[in-house]
Amino acid sequence: xxxxxxxxxxxxxxxxxxxxxxxxxxxxxxxxxxxxxxxxxxxxxxxxxxxxxxxxxxxxxxxxxxxxxxxxxxxxxxxxxxxxxxxxxxxxxxxxxxxxxxxxxxxxxxxxxxxxxxxxxxxxxxxxxxxxxxxxxxxxxxxxxxxxxxxxxxxxxxxxx
Length: 161
Prior knowledge:
single chain, alpha+beta, CATH 2.40.50.140, 5-stranded mixed β-barrel, 5 helices, 5 strands
């Protein structure tokens, strides 16, 4: 039947959309095609340095709705907004080093432009772009836990009882 129809159509001018809709030839694959291959090409990318109107920052806390609290290395803590191109594609967590773009009209808000991997952040630190006090891959919890090691005391002395 199919062979007869194709032979019949080859002699006549039949619109191609009629053939594709008739035989469902328009498919592009399932959800795995949309998900992608998972190739890790991030390691091959070129290191991005800051330009005018941009600053390096560390994510202190995720706030939800694509927003986070960022400590910029100029000494100011600002509200960061993850740009739409990065949402659901580049996952940003607390402790990540990011490149932010400052807003001209709102000094207390920044837009996250680029997320650096740990190796890229170490390279930035070696090049002198990040200060020596920058802590790579450490969250606010890790920073709070570092100390002299004698912080096991909670303020109760059982010898007095």
